[in-house]
Amino acid sequence: MILTVKQSQRGFSLSIQGNVWNADKCSLYFPKHIWEPFSSKAALINELAYVTTMATPMILQHNHVEYTSGEPQFISLYNDCFEDAVPNLIEEIPDHDYSEIIDRFHSINKIFHGKQSQFSININPNNKRVLLPFSFGKDSLLTLATLVHLGYEVIPIIIDERVLPRGFAIKEKMIKKFFTEFKIKTYIVVNEIQLLSDYEVLKMPATRLYQVQVYFIYILVMLPFCEYFNAPTIAINNEYANSLDFYHRNGIVAPRCVMQSYNVTKKLKRMLKKMTKSKIQLINPIRGLGDFAIHYLLYTNFFTFVKFRISCHMELTKYKSWCHDCVRCAHAYLYLSAIGYDIKELQFKQDLLLPEYKHLYYVFSGFSNKDKYKNFVKTEELIAFSLLRLREKMHPLVKEYIKNYSKANRIKGMIKRILIIHRGYKHIIEKKTHFFYYKELKKFEEQLNRLLII
Q: What pLDDT score does 165 carry?
């Protein structure tokens, strides 16, 4: 398989020639005025050409790949993260075997014919500017709203991966409304190359092997924007529970989402530090927050941003805001109901606390000492169900919860666990967000404790 990489006026293109499968050129491109002055085009293309196609030979089961671009400077990091993430990638794909995937990845012979290039990022840093890979999800909305509240100029970047046209059409409408309301301009990077890792496009069996590359792409495509806007900081938004151990099938214990875990974030920080000679730093303002706390902070402090929220995969659903059939929607419904919001005003069209949605909640499946992730999420759910009970919101699943947990005040000691902000913040922006969240969650904790006593 030969991957031909060519620089273009707005980014680069990539095409594939193979014995079994060929692809005409697909492009990854930026706004022209952002790309043209960027000083490290060749180096960035080498990195992106590899990470955007990491999964392609795996999905097509090719064991020999030749790139016309140069070898990426950080190929060892990309490969190590892929291996670490395999338990996550195969969790929902029963046909995938851990050892077979690892062996196949190691067996691929990769040759790079181009020159290896070093980065040379030129910025005159404006420490009030922050770049944000943006999705209109709750995490990125909370990060954006908090930073704006604290006086920072946030520049949101959306990546259109072309694989979800309906979802992106919704985002395009949101972008216009978002600017009208907040005067915050959102930029778009188009990544057609993602199509070459989509199993449906490749006409191959279902897989999630492409997911690792997405997180690298989110960071790397920020660099031309960093230079153009003299922005020395990139903010990602990975919540606390992603770092907790999850009991995967085949007895493998690993973080619930390796690529969004604290350990990988540290590796990405070191990568950026080396790549840019410490000119650009990576932060994660919501790293210490759980899902329940994020919902409270976003909806209580920044409700004007809430109407722009896109919760989940909207490609196949008939609804506008919620698919009503996934854990994300179920938790939003549960937590926001528990906090006290009128669920009808939040555009839910179904009661997600009916018996048919029981499978979307961990709390009904018991606890496990090995699975710290599920235990943490179950604790969040327990508190939410207890609050609904105290508010006399007797949905069918609340009644079932009451049968299993006799007294609401038994979970009083768990409140601190889900509202505490797990430490580790070092960057000045992270410290400021930590202080803001701490004050708000402390007030909420006091409210919950009073309610549980009544």
A: 65
